[in-house]
Amino acid sequence: MFYRPGMTRRNLLASGAAFAAASKAANTGDKPALLGGKPVRTESFPEWPVIGDDDERELMEALRSRRWNRRGGRHVDQFERAWAARVGSRHALATNGGTSALFSALNALEVGPGDEVIVPPYTFIATINVVLLQHALPVFVDTDRETFQIDAKKIEAAITRRTRCIMPVHLGGASADMDAILAVARKHGIPVVEDACQSHLAEWKGKKVGTLGDIGCFSFQASKNLNCGEGGVLTTDDEELYGRSVRFHNNGGALGGAPIGQGGRTHGCNLRMTEFQGALLSTQMERVEKQMQRREENAAYLSRMLDEIPGVTPARMYDGCTRNAYHLYMFRYDAQAFEGLPRKKFIEATSAEGIPLSGGYRPLNKDPFLENTLGSRAFRTIFSEKDAAQWRERNSCPENDRLCEEALWIGQSRLLGPRSDMDQIAEAVRRVQKNAADIARS
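The chain above was modelled as a monomer; its predicted structure follows.
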């Protein structure tokens, strides 16, 4: 606005107001996309999975070999040896899924009808399904909201004479408190199965997760940091547990002409990995370390920026977690710092800025499928109504309930781009916070 000779004070004020209004209309930099502004980000995040010429070469070699089943092939055997060496385990057994690895692990430990398995309520449903497949009861131990992990301090109180196994989940790429978990497990003589399906190459005090308990299990499902579409692997240093797992996943028999072992053939099913999966994993594993380093760098940078924004709190890691795989970048949302904007609306507004977020898991301990299972004929045969009532009384997880209302996730592939991508994530959060009141009214 410029002063012109002859302009009155009223004209000057009117012109100033008009100029301010025009400037505000022209400047859409702070206007949220949900209310018509330009999104912070318009380009796509890095695609997943990353595909190279080596993937095609190995897949075609497996195809042309005509040995698509692992028996007689080389790719699955090769991957098992490489994975065992990478994580520092004596044995690795490839399966057709992470769920199958967990299923094999519980069978190796002879978890069965009437048993209890201690699990977290904040996890993927497969952790619970494998317990129910054994006709055992999942006993939920509440979550440590700050870390999103099982609260190891509450595990001992959940142990009963029926407790057969403790199954912590290393959620999102970080580690559960393995010192505390292993201490209580040893005190009571209870084996530990680590569900490391989301935490490839994560570490607890410099040792790879999945190698600290009796058995570790990993997933190679399509979203995972190491991916072959569907697949999994079980790791253990225990010769007997390895032999049982091999037999169970191979319809009760040995593999490759090896002797079945003491006790002969057992019950089992077919959970074997194919040569195509093994071929992909062998090549994908060559780039997993570089990708992991990029995720770590971007996650650390993003955390520094989000720490400066009131109302968003990145998940805390335990001191013993010396490496986080960042399958998920997890943080908590406080609506009060955003003018009361509901989390669902925050997700909608941030997604409109080109930054897709997930609200994470629901309270799994309250899922109706559990009551449906308890009411099934098999479970009514094994567990009395008194057993079921006592289980319900123990099933309260108030901290997890709160977490499920606060949690937000960013998927691992969104951490694979340049640092500027992290700047845009933080910018989107700031913009939504600045305009939270207007968004809430929209």
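The mean pLDDT is 92.
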